[in-house]
Amino acid sequence: MDKKLIRKANLQLLIDRQYGIGKHGAKAEFARRMGKQPDYISRCLYPPGKPGAKNVGEVFARAVEKEFKLEEYAFDKPGLGGADVIDVEGLPAALAQKIKSYRPTISVERLDIAASMGPGTEPPEMNMVVEHMRLDANWVRQNLVYTSTDNLRLISGRGDSMAPTIRNGDALLVDSGVTSVESDAIYFFLMRGQHHVKRIQRNLDGLTIISDNGQYREIDVPGDRECDIQVLAQIIYWWTGRSF
């Protein structure tokens, strides 16, 4: 991850840890302690590209580390380098547990699954974990809708039926806690013994399976045949890449 993004994430993480997640006035308290204006801190937390956004510079990063007694250059490492620990002694049990279970990053398993955006692919004999991706916890909470972080998985998409929305080879972040079609969305599902990634729309009597690529026809599934489709997860995010 880019150092500028790491520092922004660590600034938010430090404020959350010191003053409480989502606490009103936390940025103002932090700003006073650092001798800055609250607007300065807010702009440091703006995402890159937003008008008025500032980067957490070298001098400010080192000053924050010194003020909060962090290891030198901790601000340049994901999750503050694991150096910042909160003393939970004396806090109510529920709050102490919440703080102790707080994770600055979320580890997501990447499975050896290439789901078809086309005619379908055979499921593997077993779901093998090939690697892990670590995602910034603040980014996940602020940008994604999911049932639980424990249900997040990564798979790959293969084929062109969901182009241009999802392209061949894109990494797909799925929520395995979603196992039924409750709303119109893109799903990872099993149909006729094969894996698919398609958009599914709920109708008055049944479902319609839709490919974003207009060259593929829609598939209507009557209500009494919905059991033919086993929803494995909902696609909640994807990284669009391009192969040459």
Q: If you average the pLDDT, what whole number results?
A: 84
User: SSE order, as H and E?
Assistant: HHHHHEEHEEEEEEE
Low-confidence stretches: none
Query: Main sheet: which strands, in order across?
Result: 2-1-3-4-9-5-6-7-8
How many DSSP helices?
6
Give the tally of structural domains: 2
Characterization of the model:
The chain has helices at 3-19, 26-34, 38-45, 58-67, 93-100, 137-143; strands at residues 105-116, 129-136, 152-158, 171-175, 185-191, 194-203, 206-210, 219-222, 229-239. The chain has six helices and nine strands. The longest helix is centred in the N-terminal third of the chain and has 17 residues, at 3-19. The model has no long low-confidence stretch (mean pLDDT 84). A nine-stranded mixed sheet has the order 2-1-3-4-9-5-6-7-8. The chain folds into two domains: 3-91; 105-239, Umud Fragment, subunit A (Ribbon). A hairpin with an 8-residue loop joins β7 (206-210) and β8.
Quick synopsis:
By secondary structure, this protein is α+β, with helices and mostly antiparallel strands.
SSE diagram, text form:
Blueprint: H1 3-19, H2 26-34, H3 38-45, H4 58-67, H5 93-100, E1 105-116, E2 129-136, H6 137-143, E3 152-158, E4 171-175, E5 185-191, E6 194-203, E7 206-210, E8 219-222, E9 229-239
Parallel strand pairs: 1-3
Antiparallel strand pairs: 1-2, 3-4, 4-9, 5-6, 5-9, 6-7, 7-8
Helix pairs in contact: 2-3
